[in-house]
Amino acid sequence: MRVGVHFESPETRSSEPKPIVQQQNRAFAWFAQNPWFHLHRYRGNDPEWLEKWERTIPRYCKCEEGYRQIKERTPPRFETPDDFFRWTIDVHNEVNAKLDNERKRYPQITVDEALRLWRSEIAFWQPIHFGGLECWSISMARRLRSFGTVVHGNIADETVAETLLGMSPRVRLLDAAKHGVPIVMSCVPKAAPILDSDLILLAHGYCDWTRDWVMSSHGVCRRLVGVSKVVSEHVTRWTGRPCETIENGIETERLVPTITREEMRLRCEIPQDAFVVGYTGRIAAEKRCELLVQAVAKMDGAYLVLCGWLTKHAERVRQIADDLGISHRVRMLEPIQQIGDFLNAIDVFATVPSSEGFGLSVVEAMHFGLPVVSTNLGIMHDLAERHGDFGPSILDVDADASAIAHAIETATASSIDLSEYTADAMADRWRRYLSIDT
């Protein structure tokens, strides 16, 4: 059931409007001052509801007389809820046009903008850096109508921001709360309470930093969600509250190669007959890419290609490759949008993080059909519980370079059905969780 601003106080939660003079809850008074707000939020097509709503228009309001005249000329369309909603927008625009004068211009609104304001399914409150959180938000914004994104802090990646904000425009937190949209909040420490908002905390991992912001923010959130079973278990352990699991999903369109394996290897300056180990994701301390360098150093002639966002830790990885004398067999690439081009050029995908909430890159590689080597974290842990042991392809977190090298050399592709881990399936799970009709 959608939670948000109603005509009644939070204790009664009635679906029928009351005249403004009967409003007793001062916290909602500023919402109640604008009856058009409630008209556009209504999701039905009941003529009786409209009659009750009309009694909430103050008699002193200039719009009242104009509304009556326009309604007589353009009768309500009650055929479907969608027809009625579009009629409310048309009427409101006509009323505003009638009120226009030299001193004040009243706004006109398009149907698309009205749908965003009054029929949005979700809003986002988060930083915009790079990684799984941003991939999740972009995938969701493509599939659910977004009210917008409340950006926390400075934007760290303009390209990612351009993609997300192009589909989910930058908005104010109070506006999202006022319109009663479920707000999914991630990585916002010490989040402030917002009046009667359906604030949902979404945890993408369980590192120390994640634990700190969960503990500082969960008290103002109505619901808690984790992207994998292990994340939800950690959140519940920290907070003592139930945490729903809604698994992430990948954009399968990104897996379709646009160039040949040979061409991609030429671009990377890798011999066509070389054995290539690949990794995608942030090159950061918790991802422990240096262990992959050490493992490849034990494999005669093997190459390692790391593709993703570079952090300060990338210099340490380069230095280790130099120290081991294999820098000529290690490549670092900027993120590639069409990740299928990269996956098509490697032989085994490997990732050995010390902490992993889900692991989108692992699912991408498995979906592509590659053998995968991973520590027993995130989605790999969940898959192993459901489908049995993957053998040496799943490693303990404390596995050393020799164990990783052995796993890489013996890894085989999996035949597990991964259809439930697509972005479409993920969006369907969120629709059900938010009780949104498809």
Quick gist of this model?
With 438 residues, the chain is of the alpha/beta class. The protein has helices at 29-32, 35-41, 47-54, 62-73, 81-99, 111-119, 132-143, 158-167, 173-178, 208-217, 229-239, 261-268, 289-297, 313-323, 339-343, 360-368, 378-387, 401-410, 423-434, and strands at 122-126, 146-151, 183-185, 199-203, 223-226, 244-245, 276-280, 303-307, 330-333, 348-351, 372-375, 394-395.
* Assembly state (oligomeric): single chain
The end-to-end distance, rounded to whole angstroms, is 14 Å
Q: Which structural class matches the secondary elements?
A: alpha/beta
CATH class of the largest domain: Alpha Beta
Gyration radius, in Å: 26 Å
Main beta sheet: 6 strands, parallel
Mean model confidence by pLDDT: 87
- Number of DSSP helical runs: 19
Percentage beta strand: 5-15%
- Let me know the number of strands: 12
Assign a percent range to the helix content. Answer: 40-55%
Principal-axis shape equals: elongated
At the fourth level of CATH, the homologous superfamily of the largest domain is Glycogen Phosphorylase B
Name the poorly predicted regions. 1-32
Domain count: the total is 3
Largest beta sheet: strand ordering: 2-1-3-4-5-6
CATH architecture of the largest domain: 3-Layer(aba) Sandwich
